[in-house]
Amino acid sequence: MKRLIMxxxxxxxxxxxxxxxxxxxxxxxxxxxxxxxxxxKDLEAMPENFEESDIxxxxxxxxxxxxxxxxTSDDEEVAKRxxxxxxxxxxxxxxxxxxxxxxxxxxxxxQYQPRIATDQVQQYAKSFHGQKLAKGDTKVATCASCHMxxxxxxxxxxxxxxxxxxxxxxxxxxxSDEEYMKEYNIPTNxxxxxxxxxxxxxxxxxxxxxxxxxxxxxxxxxxxxxGISSIGHICGTCHVNNQAYFSKSKMAIEFEEADLHACExxxxxxxxxxxxxxxxxxxxxxxxxxxxxxxxxxxxxAEKIHTELIGLxxxxxxxxxxxxxxxxxxxxxxxxxxxxxxxxQRLLSARTLVHTxxxxxxxxxxxxxxxxxxxxxxxxxEELDELDFRRFGFGIATFFMTIVLVAxxxxxKDMERDE
Amino acid sequence: MGLNRRTFLNTxxxxxxxxxxxxxxxxxxxxxxxxKIPEANVQSVNAGAxxxxxxxxxxxxxxxxxxxxxxxxxxxxxxxxxxxxxxxxCTVQYRKDRQDIWCACHNGTYNLAGRNISGPPPKPxxxxxxxxxxxxxxxxxxxxxx
Lengths: 419, 146
Fold this sequence. Notes:
The complex is a heterodimer. Chain A is an all-alpha fold. Chain A contains 22 helices and no strands. Chain A has helices at 2-24, 35-42, 55-58, 63-67, 76-79, 93-103, 106-109, 120-125, 128-134, 143-147, 167-175, 178-181, 190-196, 198-205, 214-218, 228-236, 240-247, 250-257, 263-267, 297-328, 334-353, 359-418. In chain A, helix 20 packs antiparallel against helix 21 (334-353), helix 20 runs parallel beside helix 22 and helix 21 runs antiparallel to helix 22 (359-418). By secondary structure, chain B is α+β, with helices and mostly antiparallel strands. Chain B has two domains: 1-33; 44-140, 3-layer Sandwich (Rieske Iron-sulfur Protein). Chain B has a six-stranded antiparallel β-sheet with strand order 1-10-9-4-3-2, with no helix packed on it. In chain B, a hairpin with a 4-residue loop joins strand 5 and strand 6. The mean pLDDT of chain B is 88. At the A-B interface, helix 21 and helix 22 of A face helix 1 of B.
């Protein structure tokens, strides 16, 4: 009897588990009577990367929705007969037309996603890829090159080839292929450079989805290399103050006149590294000396800015080291930590102000930072003095305790002798 | 009359005992005196009188170890959020012109409730509870949900 009850209990448990698992998974709306899939599966001729959880499959759009044909017939001749709309495997422009048929029609698309954009085809036509395709180059990327053909997921889905963390890999497929890119005469080391850049490390190693991938600078459907006039605006999307200061500086005008690439001239493009204070100044790693020579006023300005920054960095580092010491010895670090935070904030502002190329403006901020760093050091010194006082007090207490114990020992000896 | 052994011992014992008492009670007494620095683990902070905080303004307050951004909107309502950006720990600021919260480091934006609305910040800023008591603004810890 016990066995029977146990068996019933286990079967119920299994059913509940299976039902819960099924509910948690994407339910395929794939029509089990779809003859395209039945035959292609039997023949083991399913397309590469086919996923039943593909967004189109999920919404009930099966093979015939894109390829045409009669999906109700199990006879290939009938299914692909003339007049059935069968288009086979589309290539080049036909892919754009096929996807655009639905994706450019808001009346159709809004039933699935009311806020969806329907200008992808228009944008694509103005992209480098689209322009090349219009001229008959079928090697360029079309919709399926980036979105895939049979495993399409929304951009917010981590399985998607256009999910922010996967975009560099998606572009890299073609753009790092030397053989494939040969005829275009463009570099193929962008990905290798990007993965080592501050943006690449943030996105791919630290999984910071706020960090820019290829499309954030080049665009999505309208992908193009950014022009000289747009580089500053693109970087300024995130580095807003740097761009604002630069665009109002006299250097911006000189850059424009000399056809220089704004941010890119000092920071590079795909290989942008984390900035450091020696990028400005007159040292070996300074970018200023690439254009300015000793004796020029700009050379002196660069030197002044560097001196100001290094002065604050040194004071900030001293305060930070002392803060760590205060934390380690368990003293009160509250006021000091606020002062260090304030100094750090001024340091960040001063570094941003470098883009004004105005040493006086940088100095105002570094002076403020130095005040906070001094304040932090003073708080730290107070805490260290307090620590010394406590240690001294502990030493005194131990001394007196030892004296009392020794004296007590001799006193007891004396008392024993008297008895 | 020379100092004999017994007197010497008694003096040492008495003096040592008094010294030990002093060194024992000094820290006890200093502990009983309120500390000059507020406790780090605070429950609420008085941000001052309402009249001292004009509409469409903000200020950063120390809530224990956490800097908090107190905002008074154009309409006079108060809002308080953690002042540290959830992206890379820069200090956020109230933008009077746009009436939102902005991080200058990477152009991240939050609404006045601390919800991240654009740019790189991956999550909202913690929102603090505001209470008005006797025309003074009191900021308390965010309510724990669940």
